[in-house]
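We now fix the convention by which a protein and its fold are recorded. The integers have meaning only within a learned vocabulary of local backbone shapes. The record below shows the convention in full.
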Amino acid sequence: AKRFAQVEVRTQQGAFRKAVFLACGGRCVVSGCGIPEALEAAHLEGRSWRDGHNAASDGILLRRDLHALYDTGLLSFAEDMLVRLSPAVRDHYGAFEGVALTARLPTGTQATP
């Protein structure tokens, strides 16, 4: 069986990823992972590619699994810029609880998704 789906084209995605990658020094701001194939540019809370928020200051670089946790609210950043984890994922990701971000979020950014 075949499945067809509509996909929105994100024309600025490549430029956004490159800008965030460079701004974060090519490393996940939580884990420090520097493997490009394992990293994704994540839009910060309140920033949307649909609204043209595609500058380096609109995102952070996260390891793919941490990006998924961030997008679903299972990983967040406290006002003191420390990682906070949902109890639902602490057994597996507990080593990241309380870790300080290696990059600063832009001024005025809400830390939690």
